[in-house]
Write a structure and sequence with these properties.
Layout (H helix, E strand, L loop, with lengths): L10 E9 L5 H12 L9 H6 L7 E7 L2 E10 L3 H11 L4 E2 L2 E12 L1 H16 L8 H12 L3 E3 L4 E3 L6 E5 L2 H9 L5 E3 L7 H7 L3 E6 L3 H13 L2 E6 L11 H9 L2 E2 H11 L17 H15 L4 E5 L5 E6 L3 H7 L6 E4 L2 E2 L1 H10 L3 E4 L1 E2 L8 E4 L1
Parallel strand pairs: 8-9, 8-10, 10-11, 15-17, 16-18, 17-19
Antiparallel strand pairs: 1-3, 1-5, 2-3, 4-5, 6-7, 11-12, 13-14, 13-15
């Protein structure tokens, strides 16, 4: 009997079944071939598809509990998306296994190529360290990953940084800002790891000319006021209104840095605008949403990226933290220092991404398809 090469597998159909009495694996496989025969016509005949290598070896796991048989069926498919879903739906028409009544329900269809894409990007990033020449979207992603891999640490507080060998250094708030600047070829950067000023930054200001680069909101201005008061800051650059440094594009970064102000001039402007007379209000605690409310918010956010192969990271208030390419979701999550409540991805969630969500404390992961992972604490939402 033909077996699909693992290289040619596109999708994996996962289905659960229950039978009213004890059955064996051959009974389950026999029911699949026997009860679907002639149902879909010659083009989608299960036996013929398997002979042609378009359907792989059907795997069955089963156990008998209290006289009833339960288990899982896995059907590898090299067919296209629409044909695979037809085969999956056909499985649910089976109502008997062996001599007993039975029910089969498809739990998910996994795009097994998603994990291969993650491997390609990661492996290509490593290869690029010795050969930096390629074009296209994937090449751009790999180049960015390679630059980010160069992030080092500075001082006793191990602050994230790029190349600090020059005389001018850009100081930003956190690691995500450092990552974004390095991706956009601004290498002379160091992060404060939060609003609290590290003594390492103050010490660096005695040796280098520091430009403080803050977010374009009220919080950014208040951070600037604190840092200028406690470190030798020469210039201050501010992101466009309402934008954070970590989300700026290359052109926006360069324009903002060119428009920097001397620190004392910045403080005079701050005083005239009255921005130094207040402190930011503390964030009100966020009420825990029900699962149905979460699903509603997830689907509203998903509408913004549907069919664009993107992924959205959101916080506990379901405000967007960042938007990345679907294939970059795993790497972006592992590098993120910001707490992520949920991830919505226009594509398949690989087992690596699901495991990473568990490690990083992500509560919800929404995707079109999911790889099989046992014992995860992440709540999965199918799109």
């Amino acid at each position: 009997m033909a077996k699909v090469s693992p290289v040619s597998i596109k999708y994996m159909i996962y289905a659960s079944f229950s039978a009213q009495g004890p059955v064996e694996k051959p009974d389950v496989i026999g029911a699949i071939f026997g009860q679907t025969e002639g149902l879909l016509g010659s083009d989608l005949e299960m036996r013929e598809l398997q002979k042609e290598g378009k359907i792989g070896r059907i795997e069955v796991d089963l156990s008998v509990v209290d006289g009833k048989s339960v288990g899982e069926i896995r059907v590898p498919s090299a067919l296209d998306k629409s044909e695979t879903t037809i085969i999956a739906a056909t499985l649910e028409t089976i109502d008997r296994i062996g001599p007993t009544e039975a029910k089969i329900e498809v739990s998910k269809i996994e795009d097994v190529r998603g994990s291969k894409r993650d491997y390609i990007v990661e492996r290509a990033r490593k290869l690029l360290e010795g050969l930096d020449s390629s074009d296209g979207d994937m090449a751009k992603s790999v180049r960015e990953e390679s630059r980010v891999a160069r992030i080092g640490e500075y001082g006793d507080d191990k602050l994230p940084c790029g190349d600090l060998s020059g005389e001018e250094i850009v100081v930003v708030e956190g690691r995500a800002d450092v990552v974004n600047l390095i991706k956009n070829r601004v290498f002379n950067v160091i992060g404060m790891s939060g609003a609290k000023l590290s003594k390492d930054i103050a010490r660096l200001g005695e040796e280098k000319e520091l430009t403080l680069f803050v977010d374009g909101d009220r919080g950014g201005k208040l951070i600037a006021k604190n840092v200028i008061a406690n470190a030798n800051i020469a210039y201050v650059a501010v992101a466009p209104d309402g934008k954070e440094v970590e989300e700026l594009q290359g052109k926006e970064i360069l324009i903002s840095l060119r428009k920097r102000w001397p620190a004392q001039e910045f403080m005079r402007r701050l005083g005239r605008n009255g921005d130094d007379e207040h402190t930011p209000a503390e964030s009100a605690p966020v009420a825990e949403l029900s699962r149905e409310e979460v699903k509603k918010k997830v689907r509203e956010l998903y509408a913004e990226i549907k069919d664009n192969k993107k992924a959205i990271f959101v916080d506990a208030s379901f405000n967007i933290i960042q938007t990345v390419g679907a294939t970059s979701a795993l790497g972006s999550l592992m590098r993120s220092d910001t707490p992520v409540k949920a991830i919505i991805i226009d594509g398949s969630a690989t087992s690596s991404l699901i495991s990473a969500c568990g490690e990083k404390g992500v509560t919800y992961l929404a995707a079109r398809n999911f790889s099989h992972v046992e014992g995860t604490s992440v709540q999965l939402i199918s799109l």
